[in-house]
Amino acid sequence: MKLLVLSLAVLLLMSHLTPGVAQRCWNLLGKCRHRCSRKESVYVYCTNGKMCCVKPKYQPKPKPSWLF
């Protein structure tokens, strides 16, 4: 029983200390971060105030100005 409690405590601690887990955004194609990498750009902002970093190939393409 003590082993079970100890293993649950370790798993709980490891889940909080795991680095690199970021909140997902933009239909799960982007990640909420303070700073985007070189290959990413900001399109929207996350609910937590961080930038939603999305690769340009997943961002919508702008419509030409001559189309209505």
From TrEMBL:
UniProt domain Beta-defensin: residue ranges: 24-53
GO biological process: defense response to bacterium; innate immune response
Annotated Gene3D superfamilies: Antimicrobial Peptide, Beta-defensin 2, Chain A (3.10.360.10)
Pfam families linked: Defensin_beta_2
GO CC terms of this entry: extracellular region
Subcellular location: Secreted
InterPro entries found in the cross-reference section: Beta-defensin (IPR050544), Beta_defensin_dom (IPR025933)
Keyword Signal included in the entry's annotation: yes
Record has Cell cycle as a keyword: no
Keywords associated with the record: Antibiotic, Antimicrobial, Defensin, Disulfide bond, Secreted, Signal
Signal peptide stretch: 1-22
Similarity remark: Belongs to the beta-defensin family.
Purpose: Has antibacterial activity.
Protein's name according to its UniProt entry: Beta-defensin
Organism: Chinchilla lanigera (Long-tailed chinchilla)
